Amino acid sequence: MNDEITALIEGLSQAQKTISPKYFYDETGSQLFDRITGLPEYYLTDAELDIMREHVDEMAALVGEQASLIEFGSGSSLKTRILLEHLDQLAAYVPVDISEEHLLASAAKIRSEFPALDVCPVVADFTQAFALPAPIVTPVRNVVYFPGSTIGNFEYDAAMALLRVMHGEAGENGALLIGVDLQKDAAIIDPAYNDSAGVTAAFNLNMLRHLNTSYGSNFDLDAFEHRAAYDSDEGRVVIELVSTRDQSFAIADTHFEIADGETILTEYSHKYTLEGFADMARDAGFKVARVWKDKNELFSVQYCTRL
Ligand code: SAH
Ligand code: AVI
Fold first, then answer.
1. How does pLDDT run across 219-231, given as a tens digit for each residue?
2. What does the DSSP assignment read for the chain?
3. Dihedral of CA 97/294/239/195: which sign?
4. Residues in contact with ligand 1 (CB, 6 Å cut-off)
5. Strand arrangement of the beta sheet that strand 67-72 belongs to
6. What does pTM read for this prediction?
7. Dmax of the chain from CA atoms?
């Protein structure tokens, strides 16, 4: 049995059945996520794009010339384009993503839009060890870019492990530019994860379809429902699939029972205070050197240097 299947079975064997959010992202999942970013309720993307547009000159100056821009979880590289338009002296752009087809198509588009740029896509699960390619031009520094508040999809220990990997990738004179969603009223957060068009529900359920197609499971997609709610005590959205009846399912010949109303936890989306994120960054070896917020103070982009 391969490691991925072992980990899936382990997660589904816990008292709280759990599947890693990385299984959202096959080609359909990546497309559904792109639709989420365009939803009126999903304030994160508009807020982050506003910050990028307003402060891109300062960000570009901080990145500097001949840097390698390494993006974790690049998806469609939507926000990156704003940076790339202001960084004509980059040594390389290295988008890293688990969603292979989507990453390679996005990288090809970036190449055609920025023909002078050395684009080096890496298909990898960034929670596991992976190698970075050597760009044609040796960069003077590495800047890790991690937009979208994807850091929020990791619990503290895993977020810390990921920040430490980024700290290592940044190297001695490198930096981290990261999108961080902020704690706010549930009245704003809840609709972002329960949109009226049902795209987030489709995104959540697509995880089961992806597992059925590529990992040999037999989930009945009609017997699960999307649920998402902000837990203000924990500062995170809890995203689940709720079983709508007593049923069983299997993955790689391992059988599971799930009761009517029982849930599979598919994702957390942590929201931070500025102090909370600064503490976490410091514990991973970063100092928050600059914070930009949108006018409604919903979201932040933060530039972190190594301590
Ligand atoms: N950065 C983009 C996309 C965010 S969605 C934006 O801000 O809009 C999260 C992205 O991270 C997806 O493209 C997904 O495929 C990727 N991703 C999630 N978990 C991953 C993992 N473990 N390893 C590599 N990529 C991952
Ligand atoms: C990628 N990540 C930051 C998204 C989020 O908001 O936590 C994933 C997502 N899940 C449901 N909607 C969007």
1. 999 999 999 999 9
2. --HHHHHHHHHHHSSSEE--GGGG-SHHHHHHHHHHHT-TT-HHHHHHHHHHHHHHHHHHHHH-TTEEEEEES-TT-TTHHHHHHT-TT-SEEEEEES-HHHHHHHHHHHHHHSTTS-B--EE--TTS--PPPPPSSPPSEEEEEE-TTGGGGS-HHHHHHHHHHHHHHH-TT-EEEEEEEBP--HHHHHHHTS-TT-HHHHHHHHHHHHHHHHS-B---GGGEEEEEEEETTTTEEEEEEEESSSEEEEETTEEEEE-TT-EEEEEEEE-B-HHHHHHHHHHTTEEEEEEEE-TTS-EEEEEEEE-
3. negative
4. 22, 25, 30, 33, 37, 73-75, 78-79, 97-99, 125-127, 147-148, 150
5. 122-123, 92-97, 67-72, 141-146, 175-181, 299-306, 286-293
6. 0.98
7. 59
**Cα radius of gyration (the chain):** 19
Produce one character per residue of 253-280: b if its CB has 16 or more CB atoms within 10 Å, e if not. Answer: eeebebeeeebbbbbbbbbbebeebbeb
Amino acid at 77: S
> What are 98-155's pLDDT values in tens digits?
999 999 999 999 999 999 999 999 999 999 999 999 889 899 999 999 999 999 999 9
Angle subtended at Cα 239 by Cα 236 and Cα 241, rounded to the nearest 5 degrees:
160
Task: Specify the residue with its C-alpha closest to ligand 1, atom 18.
Answer: 22
* Among 219, 239, 265, 210, residue whose Cα is nearest residue 29: 210
Phi and psi at residue 213, to the nearest 5°: -75, -40
173's tokens: 């004179």
Q: How far is the CA of 147 from the centre of ligand 1 (A)?
A: 9
| 248 Cα to the center of ligand 1, angstroms | 30
Question: Between the CA atoms of 6, 75, 69 and 283, what dihedral angle is there, to the nearest 10 degrees?
Answer: -50
Atom of ligand 1 nearest to the CA of 125: 23
